[in-house]
């Protein structure tokens, strides 16, 4: 986990158990990036209300986060939070093996086995289980391992019950050529505005979670990453064509601010918009 900008972090405790990990931390405003992990993550807000923007692969949200709000980040998702206010949070990571054990013990007929991403989920039972786990993180004398194992299994079971899906594309399944063309054309036509996962899924008549997996298996990258790359390349083309400022190119390509374009262009192309403009002036 990495904090950027002016963020400062005050860890209050971190503990790992078999299949389970918990981390409690206070942080000042700033940007927080978490690379993809093999485990499912619950990010639980513990403190005062805070203005937060977050992004998980191809999903984004901006809101005021309040005590008890839960973000669900499935395994394999990259996550970014931009906090405008100080935050106090608890992260809980649940391993796929623990989730599988919970799924085996459930009596649901739909056999849920995968986790759906969620923003600001409210679930009193998950929150109470998390608070019990938080006590174990900060305790001088932790409880018996059997108690922790029971907490972890209860959390995994409730997570599947509230945020689980039975649907999963078969390995190797992809979007058909016509559906892929329809999707890519839609993205190109809407690069300057909002592109929502639900709208893309509706184009090809599947659920958002199904579409996300199909797109990744077809294009070999998440939808969000593909959209960012296309927006960067559109901005580059606008700058090279001349007649617009870097700020205008950023807005016309779907970036909210020139600095956002600069950060993304460096990631994708290894150059900044200013460097692209200077190179064009010299040619």
Descriptive report:
44% of the residues lie in helices and 25% in strands. It is globular. It has ten helices and 13 strands. Strands 2-3-10-5-8-12 form a six-stranded antiparallel sheet. The protein has a five-stranded antiparallel sheet with strand order 1-4-9-6-7, with no helix packed on it. Strand 2 (9-17) and strand 3 form a beta hairpin. Mean pLDDT is 86; it is low at 1-6. The chain has helices spanning 96-105, 124-138, 145-163, 177-189, 197-203, 208-219, 223-241, 246-252, 258-269, 273-282; strands at 2-4, 9-17, 20-27, 30-34, 40-45, 50-56, 59-65, 70-73, 79-83, 87-94, 114-115, 118-121, 164-165. The chain has three domains: 2-165, Sandwich (Jelly Rolls), CATH 2.60.120; 177-220; 225-282, Arc Repressor Mutant, subunit A (Orthogonal Bundle), CATH 1.10.10. The two termini are 41 Å apart. Helix 5 (197-203) packs across helix 6 (208-219), helix 7 (223-241) runs antiparallel to helix 8 and helix 7 packs parallel to helix 10 (273-282). With 283 residues, it is of the alpha+beta class.
| Termini Cα gap | 41 Å
Mean pLDDT across all amino acids: 86
Into which percentage range does the β-strand content fall?
15-25%
The total of beta strands comes to 13
Report the top-level CATH class of the largest domain: Mainly Beta
Helix content: 40-55%
Indicate the CATH architecture of the largest domain. Sandwich
How many domains, in number, for the residues?
Answer: 3
Rg calculated over all Cα atoms: 21 Å
**Which H/E pattern describes the elements?**
EEEEEEEEEEHEEHHEHHHHHHH
CATH fold group of the largest domain = Jelly Rolls
Major sheet: arrangement of strands: 2-3-10-5-8-12
Large-scale geometry: globular
What composes the largest sheet? 6 strands, antiparallel
Give me the number of helical elements.
10
């Amino acid at each position: 986990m990495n904090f950027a900008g002016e963020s400062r972090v005050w860890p209050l405790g971190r503990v790992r158990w078999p299949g389970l990990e918990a981390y409690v931390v206070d942080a000042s405003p700033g940007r927080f990036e978490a690379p993809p992990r093999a485990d499912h993550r619950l990010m639980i807000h513990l403190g005062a209300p805070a203005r937060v923007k977050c992004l998980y692969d191809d999903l984004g949200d901006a809101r005021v986060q309040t005590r008890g709000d839960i973000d669900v980040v499935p395994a394999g998702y990259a996550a970014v939070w931009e906090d405008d206010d100080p935050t106090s949070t608890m992260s809980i990571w649940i391993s796929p093996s623990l989730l599988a054990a919970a799924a085996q013990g459930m009596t649901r007929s739909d056999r849920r086995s995968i986790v759906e991403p969620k923003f600001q989920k409210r679930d009193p039972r998950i929150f109470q289980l998390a608070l019990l786990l938080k006590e174990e993180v900060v305790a001088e004398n932790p409880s018996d391992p059997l108690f922790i194992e029971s907490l972890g299994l209860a959390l995994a079971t409730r997570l599947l019950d509230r945020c689980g899906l039975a649907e999963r594309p078969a390995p190797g399944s992809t979007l058909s050529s016509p559906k892929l063309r329809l999707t890519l054309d839609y993205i190109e036509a809407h690069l300057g505005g909002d592109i929502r996962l639900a709208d893309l899924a509706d184009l090809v008549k599947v659920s958002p979670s199904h579409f996300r997996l199909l797109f990744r298996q077809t294009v070999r990258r998440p939808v969000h990453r593909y959209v960012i790359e296309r927006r960067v390349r559109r901005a580059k083309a606008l700058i090279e064509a001349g007649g617009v400022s870097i700020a205008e190119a950023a807005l016309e390509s779907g970036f909210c601010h020139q600095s956002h374009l600069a950060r993304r262009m460096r990631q994708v192309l290894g150059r900044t918009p200013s460097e692209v403009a200077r190179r064009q002036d010299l040619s």
